[in-house]
Specification:
Number of strands: 10
CATH topology of the largest domain: Spore Coat Polysaccharide Biosynthesis Protein SpsA, Chain A
Order of helices and strands: EHEHEHEEHEHEEEHHEHHHH
Shape: globular
CATH class of the largest domain: Alpha Beta
CATH architecture of the largest domain: Alpha-Beta Complex
Largest sheet: 10 strands, mixed
Number of domains: 2
Number of helices: 11
Structural class: alpha/beta
Low-confidence stretches: none
Mean pLDDT: 91
Radius of gyration: 21 Å
Strand content: 15-25%
């Protein structure tokens, strides 16, 4: 009987054949042994399914492939979690790669800090030739260190707690202070407390989920890259931009409804002015008064 907790590596796929084999190889090379792979596929039309089927007999661990009716990326992520058998969820996207010690180090940190809600790590970058250029260089410069100035360190681990919400720079880019899904690991049963990923969101659904965890429990960031995040022209962020999909216009409303009491005073005042019913009534009355005075 294996004394190590089972970790479910969750891979939501859609037409991921170009980089998927490299992703799977990084799982095969993990130093942590008690794992399973959960693939939830949104009707891929390329070689994704063939790659998965060929990988199954070669793997040292169970590989489960589930065919999912496309209902958005959040629904596919949630399907991965629902199908997982493990105590822990480790997302890995179809174009990203784990360092060989990724899961072992994350589980080790969890063993030392059982009260935390999520473990993440720094990440390095794989830049495909079609993404080389000034835009990518500027993006990396801006988003390479998501926790810059935000954390207290202990034994090379960065600690985030609810005080993060009160910081003056919390509402300043980068809005995601934790990392992409490939960079995190969390207990499956956390969804019983905070719910699943929101299916009405496309761009901010990952860190909206992380922040729900952070409201309940601290988050730890291992201060070294344990995953490689691939930058290329076909990644979801670029596709969303091409289709003018933008969740950021409702981010403030989410903060107002779910996090208002945790925010700093400046953010509280700004959001109350923007969304509270009392503020809206006062602004309406002022407008009517000004109109009346002009008529006179």
């Amino acid at each position: 009987m294996n004394s190590l907790p089972l970790v479910s590596i969750c891979i939501p796929t859609f037409n991921g054949g170009k980089y998927l084999q490299e992703t799977l190889n990084s799982i095969q090379e993990q130093t942590y042994s008690n794992i399973e792979v959960i693939v939830s596929d949104d009707k891929s039309m390329d070689k994704t399914l063939d790659i998965i089927e060929k990988f199954k007999p070669q793997s040292k661990f169970p590989v489960f492939l589930y065919h999912h009716k496309p209902k958005g990326i959040g629904a596919n992520w949630n399907n991965c979690i629902k199908k997982a058998n493990g105590e822990f969820i480790k997302f890995l996207f179809q174009d990203d790669v784990m360092e060989e010690n990724c899961i072992e180090e994350m589980i080790s940190i969890y063993d030392e800090n059982p009260a935390v809600g999520l473990i993440a790590s720094k990440r390095s970058f794989i830049i495909e030739q079609n993404a080389v250029g000034e835009n990518t260089n500027n993006w990396i410069k801006k988003y390479e260190d998501l926790q810059s100035g935000l954390t207290q360190k202990k034994n090379n681990v960065l600690i985030l707690d609810k005080l993060v919400f009160k910081r003056n720079d919390f509402r300043k880019p980068p809005f995601n202070k934790i990392g992409e899904p490939s960079a995190v690991l969390f207990r499956k049963d956390i969804v019983n407390k905070i719910g699943y990923f929101r299916t009405d969101l496309r761009q901010i659904l990952d860190y909206e989920f992380w922040y729900r965890i952070l409201k309940q429990q601290p988050i730890l960031i291992i201060n070294k890259p344990l995953v490689k995040f691939r930058i290329h022209q076909d990644q979801t962020t670029n596709e969303n931009n091409k289709r003018h999909i933008n969740d950021y216009n409702i981010y403030d409303k989410i903060l107002f409804k779910e996090y208002l009491n945790l925010l700093g005073e400046e953010d509280k005042l700004r959001l109350k002015h923007k969304y509270s019913l009392v503020s809206k009534i006062i602004r309406k009355l002022k407008f009517l008064f000004n109109v009346k005075m002009k008529v006179k």
